[in-house]
Specification:
By secondary structure, the chain is mostly helical. 73% of the residues lie in helices and 0% in strands. Helix 1 packs across helix 2 and helix 2 crosses helix 3.
Length: 130
């Protein structure tokens, strides 16, 4: 005896006249014994047809709502405490650069890297770190 899934496949094939006469008779007998399955199969087919013919679109203003929500979430990342930490780091970097320029006695790019006073005797950067 066939299982319900096989009969369901036969039922779908019967619509296209793609099953034999013997399978069609077997299917008719099965459906007479199980009329609730035929109702379920027809409901499933109606749902599939509905999904195939549906025209899915976004509502008016959907794009702006998404961008607004994203903007609000992004703003939460940069709250007041984050700004204080950021400004403190920038100030420390500027003070360090000024300190290096004063120590090297030059306002060049080499002074910013701490290598302005390098000569042939002291070519190691570790010499200047001490």
């Amino acid at each position: 005896m066939k299982v319900e899934d096989k009969y369901h496949k036969d039922w779908l094939l019967k619509k296209d006249s793609a099953i034999s006469e013997e399978e069609s008779t077997s299917l008719d007998v099965f459906l007479k014994e199980h009329p609730q399955l035929l109702v379920e199969w027809e409901i499933l087919e109606a749902q599939i047809d509905c999904l195939n013919t549906a025209n899915f679109t976004f509502s008016e203003g959907f794009e702006f709502k998404v961008m607004d929500q994203w903007k609000r979430e992004k703003e939460q990342l940069f709250d007041q405490s984050s700004k204080v930490i950021l400004y403190t780091g920038i100030a420390a970097a500027v003070i360090l650069m000024i300190n290096l320029c004063v120590t090297q006695n030059s306002m060049s790019l080499d002074a910013l890297f701490g290598i302005a006073d390098m000569n042939a005797d002291n070519t190691s950067l570790l010499f200047y770190i001490d």
